[in-house]
Amino acid sequence: MIRLAGRLDDGQIAGTAVAWLSHGSLTLHFVGTQPEYRRRGIGAAMIRTVGTFELMPF
Description:
This protein is an alpha+beta fold. 17% of the residues lie in helices and 43% in strands.
């Protein structure tokens, strides 16, 4: 399981993401953004970041 926390410069958590890596497949399970930080591209940035993880062969 991969868990990410998107933090602002002041350390405040603005978003989170959870993905599963299993049998060579990466599945994005959840992306969430704090209501006060929505519509700023934070969720999209979390999705792009999860997409950069390389899949390891089994």
